[in-house]
What does this fold into?
Amino acid sequence: VRRSGQSGTILFYSEASDPSWPTELQKAFPTFAVRTRPEDTDPTDVVAAIVWKYPAGMLQQFANLRLIQVLGAGVDHLWSDPCLPKHVPIARLVDPGLTARMTEYVLLHSLALHRRLPELRSAQCKNTWRYLHPRPPADTCVGIMGLGVLGRSCAAALAGIGFNAIGWSRSRKSNMAVQTYIGAADLDEFKRRADIIVLLLPLTSATENLIDSHFLAGVRDGAALINVGRGALIVENALIAALDAGRLRHAVLDVFRTEPLPAEHAFWSHPKITITPHNSSATNPATALGQIVENIRRATAGEKLLHPVDPLIGY
Amino acid sequence: VRRSGQSGTILFYSEASDPSWPTELQKAFPTFAVRTRPEDTDPTDVVAAIVWKYPAGMLQQFANLRLIQVLGAGVDHLWSDPCLPKHVPIARLVDPGLTARMTEYVLLHSLALHRRLPELRSAQCKNTWRYLHPRPPADTCVGIMGLGVLGRSCAAALAGIGFNAIGWSRSRKSNMAVQTYIGAADLDEFKRRADIIVLLLPLTSATENLIDSHFLAGVRDGAALINVGRGALIVENALIAALDAGRLRHAVLDVFRTEPLPAEHAFWSHPKITITPHNSSATNPATALGQIVENIRRATAGEKLLHPVDPLIGY
It folds into this structure.
């Protein structure tokens, strides 16, 4: 039997998140039962599901669900669930902690590529002193593809440290702090300029496989790639071919079509690929909790959510 | 025969510097002859020597030398020249470009250590997905040893991005933006706090071999080290022992007792050492030229130099 108002069960289901989440949620919702496994709930009692990469079909058993709160910025994994409840409002998080961690990651790897750490590591493996003169960041153009909250924050931080930062977006954005290229018409010019391309696009039918052999044929010679968006933005064989041909000099990959990346995958041992285990960023309870509290209040009151997701456009 | 005033020969002698230096100097001093090899000069005509790691004895042949301008912040290599002319004023550079490149390097490697890139690289070498939750920079204390122009800039940038930055200095400094520990009395407390120790000390008789087994016994368990000061600050065997024992988790080394680092040196293949070829920073003609122009003017006019070096304290 579902209780109304400030009670019920909150299901928190997430891989690879901050371990303090369940405790923090329980503290924030003392009158709710916070559970981390569906089998520990009375399904009719679950009013809110806070999820990250849950098993397909998990949500359909909750007849009184009023909120699907995704524990991050990307919501594409929802669309692979054929049993996603159709009439339950969905929200994603815009978390200052998530934005800050992502910005630090992009700054770190842009600096590492600008300073040619992969090339210096190769030299170290050969006991070779290979002096490379340090250049100012202004000599390197970093192009951010995807100018949502994360992309804008990265662009501002890169420009702040002196990089020549530019952006590309599918549709026109207002108040951009950096030079912005818009849509398919501007993509070639964007690619001609960027020494480092940072993928921060949402995964939708319009962006899937965007980074294919045609795209990679048009990048600057020796450009580098950082993918912190989604694995399926990239055609894997095209990426490997571009690295092997020297068209791309290095790729830093945090996201993959299959995660964890299978042990036998060719990416692991490729000398021009740096792999991080989808840990570029993560939602932080301290900074995100307030938004979840507010969305649970709004959902139970039938109000419009913060950062609602539109299933028709996919984000 | 030495010409007076705005003429004479300027000797520019430097390893591993921006290749545009001689051209830029000649443009700035059209009435002087700019030479890059002592054998291409009339020694009595040389009025200013702009140097970085010159062969010992090179300067004593220049009887009319009025300025030894070091092309960087560290001047310790001068003291290894037993024939350094005694009565010629010496200046070092405080170059905004040099400071900026150093700051970027320290930011890059502090972020890399904070985000555990060496550990993730080891995991990648084993085709292993090892998720490490991204922590905010505030969870990591970066301790800068040496609070001159470079150390202060690094401390400010680290604090600016959210690191818990602290500093240590031999003598009290004013107007420090970060918490500062002073002298031998504070060193143990400083070491107990720093997760990452950045060496930006000048090399003097007081700092040589400072990072020995005693020092390393007192650092935080699993601390990391970044050396952008001088190689001789560190006792090499003590460093390797601390890494092998796990007391230090990683060392990023840009400077070495012998440079280039000999091919047979144990540092090259140590799994917990990242080597860069003394390219953390370099003097930039665009930002440093004005200071050199001014010092040549002052030297020929007999005025006090910008950033004079005191041979008695060694920097």
